[in-house]
């Protein structure tokens, strides 16, 4: 009990520690950003302080290690295991690899062979090695979240600055992001006091984002139970990081390829990344419309008036966006010029070639090694997967009822896939073309994919939790709405658990009730997604 | 020739004597088994209590004979190979599964498999066994309700090092793995036992195909409605 109390005390102090050490990180970042050519010894002092800060941050690791230890104790005592079933599958697969066999000899191993390779120390060292590895990966995810959010904030700051200059100097064509190699935030901000003021606020936002991942009970529990989904998160975030912060398009594509190999689902992000690199990508729809208007030479200047009005209107509302399009602008779903978006530019070609190269290399390598079974278990199975056992999915009962009935039309399958396909496509284009909403695009697509998936268990929410912190600063939701949505969401999930428990452990026929609860859970999820979209606004007044 | 006659006779007599003695010395097994199925739902436990009134433990141990239970698991049920491996590793129960177990298959697509449970022979008087097993999902049917899965009676097998006749009584010869490692196949003798239980049927909830029209319409419409709602929300924003 003593150790528990100690751990609790330590736990309470974490936010404080993190808040304390964030200044050093910023000063380091500031130092790096100040210089265009960073030399090795330029920012040593700042870096050292940042290092200390990181060491402190890593204390969140302790919570996870405590839980891993607890897991060992719990598994030894209790019949209901703390450790995830999949973790056993990984360990067995690793044993097969160690013996020079295929990891796919292990029944139900449906992951990349890399997982089994990584977890070989599970057998040679200690069976909890994998859990510790996943916990460390959680820390890397946190660092990546930090870097990405910081970059996004800086980019947003520089955008705001530009907008202000624009309003002073009159209407100009907004520069497309292609010409900017580095965020110009620091250079653009003139007065020193403003810098410190903004950086303090920025630190706060960055830290909150990071804490949202580090101390999320779901991610802690799932990581320490030995689930490999945080590895998928780290790869997705690494793609975002190399794409947004570093602008290494080829490397980013390569990471994306690895990511798709590792878990199939990030393949849905491909179009977003592609659109992000498009030369048609701007900061806001306003910018795009402005640029469209200015490029058209025959447009009279009077037509520009309403747009100015909208800008004023939206900023006076504090960024609320339920502002209708004004004037003669006609809203169409599809215009012929949208097809131009698909013509690749050099950046996009780099990204695509990186992706194809890494994906084919890895797939070919493992195909040579383990044969068709690898291809089937890691990729094809997840496409054809039809899990008829009860789960959170809206489509569970429908799939179960029609699973072995022959005369079911194709229309059912089409109607199941179409809504999510449409939404993912719309999100990719709509948010992907906006430089400030790439992260939100990824989040929205992940949410759509998870809630429309044919199989849905709580571990799928880790995919959302990994990208949610990136957009926390952009989703300006009132506290009451957050609480209400969280309450509804948790209640819907809890309500589902009752009939599911009765079915699974008491053998009562509650299929219909489970279905009703899945329907309500789906509605709750859609409501949350809808609210997130409504309150998502890159056009905020203050960062 | 003549000198050899008494020798031959002696041999015959001795042989006769020996056989008679062997017959009288055969182990008479008096075994009764009680069965109980615990829990409800998809995860059950079969508990068997195997009681032997004769012979006493020490004689049984000296005979070096072995007992095992053979359970033919019907397609509606499966024994989870992982759990079996775990039980074997911890030596809580020595088991072998004969046949491929697809843990994800529904009842009508699954195949039978056979489980051999090797009984701890040192304490033959009273052996208690707990075997975890799982029910498979069944195909949806009209009017729903519950599907029945028969749980068969286990067979009791015995094997002795020198001869199967070491144990009294006649029984069908069965080929089965010698131990849980299943490296060799032995010929076992199927014994009779007193069963203090009836063959039971387990009930599995089954989806109701009568729900299909409602479920398909609501589910698919809701999926589309969710999509339309999100699109409408999206059209109101101006990012």
Automatic annotation (TrEMBL), chain A:
Transmembrane listed as a keyword:
yes
Which pathway does it take part in?
Glycolipid biosynthesis; glycosylphosphatidylinositol-anchor biosynthesis
Q: Provide the topology term for how it sits in the membrane.
A: Multi-pass membrane protein
Q: Top EC class per UniProt?
A: transferase
* Superkingdom assignment: Eukaryota
Q: Does Transmembrane count among this protein's keywords? A: yes
One BP annotation, GO = GPI anchor biosynthetic process
Report one GO cellular component.
glycosylphosphatidylinositol-mannosyltransferase I complex
The record lists the membrane-crossing segments as: 132-149, 338-367, 410-429, 482-502, 514-537
The terms under GO molecular function for this entry are:
alpha-1,4-mannosyltransferase activity; GPI mannosyltransferase activity
Q: Which InterPro entries match?
A: PIG-M
Q: Which UniProt keywords apply?
A: Endoplasmic reticulum, Glycosyltransferase, GPI-anchor biosynthesis, Membrane, Transferase, Transmembrane, Transmembrane helix
One Pfam family name is Mannosyl_trans
Q: What is its EC number?
A: 2.4.1.-
| Locations listed in the record | Endoplasmic reticulum membrane
Family per similarity comment: Belongs to the PIGM family.
Record-linked PANTHER family: GPI MANNOSYLTRANSFERASE 1, PIG-M MANNOSYLTRANSFERASE
The protein's job, in short, is: Catalytic subunit of the glycosylphosphatidylinositol-mannosyltransferase I complex which catalyzes the transfer of the first mannose, via an alpha-1,4 bond from a dolichol-phosphate-mannose (Dol-P-Man) to the glucosaminyl acyl phosphatidylinositol (GlcN-(acyl)PI) intermediate to generate alpha-D-Man-(1->4)-alpha-D-GlcN-(1->6)-(1-radyl,2-acyl-sn-glycero-3-phospho)-2-acyl-inositol and participates in the sixth step of the glycosylphosphatidylinositol-anchor biosynthesis.
The name on file for this protein is GPI alpha-1,4-mannosyltransferase I, catalytic subunit
Automatic annotation (TrEMBL), chain B:
Pfam families, sorted: PIG-X
Q: What are the alphabetically sorted keywords of the record?
A: Endoplasmic reticulum, Glycoprotein, GPI-anchor biosynthesis, Membrane, Signal, Transmembrane, Transmembrane helix
Q: In the UniProt record, does the keyword Transmembrane helix occur?
A: yes
Q: A GO CC term?
A: endoplasmic reticulum membrane
Q: Which SMART domains match?
A: PIG-X
Where does the chain cross the membrane? Answer: 212-234
Which terms under GO biological process does the entry name? GPI anchor biosynthetic process
Per UniProt, subcellular location reads as:
Endoplasmic reticulum membrane
Q: Could you say which protein family the record assigns here?
A: Belongs to the PIGX family.
> What is the protein name stated in its UniProt record?
Phosphatidylinositol-glycan biosynthesis class X protein
Q: Native species of this protein?
A: Exocentrus adspersus
């Amino acid at each position: 009990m003593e150790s528990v109390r100690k751990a609790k005390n330590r736990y309470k102090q974490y936010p404080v520690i993190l808040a304390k050490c964030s200044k050093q990180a910023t000063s380091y970042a500031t130092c790096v950003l100040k210089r265009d050519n960073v030399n090795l010894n330029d920012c040593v002092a700042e870096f050292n302080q940042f290092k200390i800060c990181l060491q402190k941050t890593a204390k969140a690791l302790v919570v996870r290690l405590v839980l891993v230890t607890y897991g060992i104790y719990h598994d030894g005592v209790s019949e209901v295991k703390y450790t995830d079933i999949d973790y056993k599958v990984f360990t067995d697969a690793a044993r097969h690899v160690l013996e020079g066999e295929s990891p796919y000899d292990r029944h139900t191993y449906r992951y990349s062979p890399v997982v089994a390779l990584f977890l070989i120390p599970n057998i040679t060292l200690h069976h909890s090695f994998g859990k510790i590895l996943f916990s460390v990966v959680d820390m890397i995810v946190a660092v990546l979240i930090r870097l990405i959010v910081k970059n996004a904030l800086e980019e947003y700051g520089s955008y705001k600055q530009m907008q202000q200059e624009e309003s002073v100097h009159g209407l100009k064509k907004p520069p497309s992001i292609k010409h900017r190699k580095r965020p110009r935030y620091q250079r653009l901000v003139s007065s020193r006091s403003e810098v410190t003021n903004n950086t303090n606020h920025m630190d706060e936002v960055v830290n909150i984002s990071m804490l949202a991942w580090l101390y999320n009970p779901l991610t802690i529990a799932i990581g320490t139970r030995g689930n490999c989904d945080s590895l998928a998160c780290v790869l997705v975030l690494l793609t975002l990081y190399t794409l947004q912060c570093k602008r290494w398009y080829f490397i980013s594509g390569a990471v994306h390829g690895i990511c798709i190999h590792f878990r199939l689902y990030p393949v849905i992000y491909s179009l977003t990344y592609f659109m992000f690199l498009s030369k048609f990508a701007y900061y806001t729809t306003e910018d795009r419309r402005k640029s469209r208007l200015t490029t058209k030479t025959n447009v009279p200047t009077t037509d520009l008036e309403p747009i100015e009005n909208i800008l004023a209107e939206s900023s006076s509302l504090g960024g609320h966006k339920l502002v209708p399009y004004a004037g003669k602008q006609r809203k169409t779903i599809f215009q012929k010029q949208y097809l131009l978006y698909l013509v690749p530019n050099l950046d996009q070609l780099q990204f695509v070639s990186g992706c194809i190269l890494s994906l084919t290399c890895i797939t070919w390598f493992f195909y040579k090694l383990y044969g068709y079974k690898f291809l089937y278990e890691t990729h094809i199975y997840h496409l054809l997967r039809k899990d008829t056992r009860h789960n959170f999915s809206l489509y569970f009962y429908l799939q179960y009822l029609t699973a072995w009935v022959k005369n079911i039309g194709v229309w059912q399958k089409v109607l199941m896939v179409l809504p999510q396909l449409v939404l993912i496509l719309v999100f990719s284009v709509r948010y992907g073309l906006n430089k400030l909403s790439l992260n939100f695009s990824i989040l929205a697509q992940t949410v759509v994919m998870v809630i429309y998936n044919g199989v849905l268990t709580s571990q799928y929410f880790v995919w959302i939790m990994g990208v949610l912190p990136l957009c926390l600063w952009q989703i300006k939701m009132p506290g009451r709405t957050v609480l209400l949505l969280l309450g509804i969401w948790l209640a819907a999930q809890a309500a589902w658990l009752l009939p599911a428990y009765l079915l699974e452990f008491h053998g009562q026929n509650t299929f219909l009730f489970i279905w009703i609860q899945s329907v309500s859970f789906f509605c709750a999820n859609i409501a949350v997604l809808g609210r997130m979209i409504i309150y998502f606004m890159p056009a905020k007044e203050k960062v | 020739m003549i000198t050899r006659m008494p020798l031959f006779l002696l041999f015959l007599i001795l042989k006769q004597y020996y056989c008679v003695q062997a017959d009288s010395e055969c182990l008479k097994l008096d075994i009764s088994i009680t069965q109980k199925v615990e829990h409800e739902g998809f995860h059950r436990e079969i508990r068997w209590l195997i009681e032997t009134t004769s012979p006493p433990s020490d004689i049984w141990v000296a005979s070096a004979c072995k007992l095992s239970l053979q359970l033919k698991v019907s397609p509606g049920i499966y024994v989870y190979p992982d759990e079996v491996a775990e039980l074997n590793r911890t030596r809580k129960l020595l088991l072998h599964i004969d046949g491929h177990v697809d843990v994800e298959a529904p009842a009508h697509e699954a195949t039978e498999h056979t489980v051999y449970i090797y009984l701890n022979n040192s304490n033959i008087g009273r052996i208690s066994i707990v075997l975890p097993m799982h029910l498979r999902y069944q195909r949806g049917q009209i009017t729903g309700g519950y599907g029945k899965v028969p749980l068969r009676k286990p067979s009791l097998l015995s094997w002795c090092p020198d001869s199967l006749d070491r144990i009294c009584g006649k029984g069908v010869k069965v080929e089965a793995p010698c131990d849980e490692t299943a490296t060799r196949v032995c010929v076992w003798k199927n014994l009779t036992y007193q069963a203090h239980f009836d063959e039971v049927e387990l009930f599995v909830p089954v989806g109701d195909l009568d729900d299909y029209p409602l479920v398909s319409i609501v589910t698919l419409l809701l999926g589309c409605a969710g999509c339309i709602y999100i699109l409408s929300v999206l059209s109101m924003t101006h990012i």
